[in-house]
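Thanks for the sequence, V.! I ran Ribokinase right away. Repeating your input here for the record:
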Amino acid sequence: MQQDIQVTIVGSSNVDITALMARLPGPGETVLADSYQLSPGGKGANQALAAQLAGAATEFIGAVGQDSHSEVALGQLDEEGVKLDRVARTIEPTGVAIIQVDSGAENSIAVVSGANSTVTGEAVKAAGAIEGILVLQGEIPASGIKAAMDAATDRIVLNLAPVIELERDYLLKANPLVVNEHEAALILAQLDGSESISTEAEPVIAQKLMDHGLASLVITLGANGCLVAEQGSEIQQLPAVKVKAVDTTGAGDAFTGAVAARLAQGEDLAEAAVFAGRFAALTVQAHGAQASYPRSLENL
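Predicted structure:
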């Protein structure tokens, strides 16, 4: 019997084509890669897998094409028990992310949306009720994000990556908003109605975002951990777990999915972020996104 859903992710699913190389190419430059991998990805699917592996019964709502890439895109979600009944099969091809990773674990990513572009407001409304904590990202149309928020019955975790235009009322539905330091500055500019991007320190940006009325906020800082802010409390900086990173692809998604899972299990935001930091730290020690996610919580 299907367990009650604790986390629902509405979002993107891709196939990642990852080239491993000594250094990333500059503009107009060709660099020989050492190898490449074909693997499942997409921020929505990554977060769904992370939430499931972090202990929450999870559903993924999205879209893939009617092509061979669709089986790769959904394979690990299916294997780990994520509910996939409401993943649409469209005439658009499955989304593809083209990823370059250098020897220092830095990456560059280009995304072809494909079927993800069909996860519109109309499609999300047609999918029906949303159970549990809702998790969203910026790789589907804004109309799909807003329709999912309108249908939510629990708290909403918004990872607005990439940063897309979203009305103030919808941004303020996030509880928490989970972003990195660059995304935080872009969203602050949106809320301020400013064309300039703040270069202030992350705690200052965090406070300004909270002053706009966010219920809660997490700003991830890579090797420097994360900032956690909630209305009525001081901003906390939580340290990162120190590890040797070989590939950071999908680490932010692992963090977001794990945060949602732990919130669904009753932890407060700081506790959930501490767990998610440990979860994400394990993922950067192996190549790939979903393949690097821990299949056991024994070491967490």
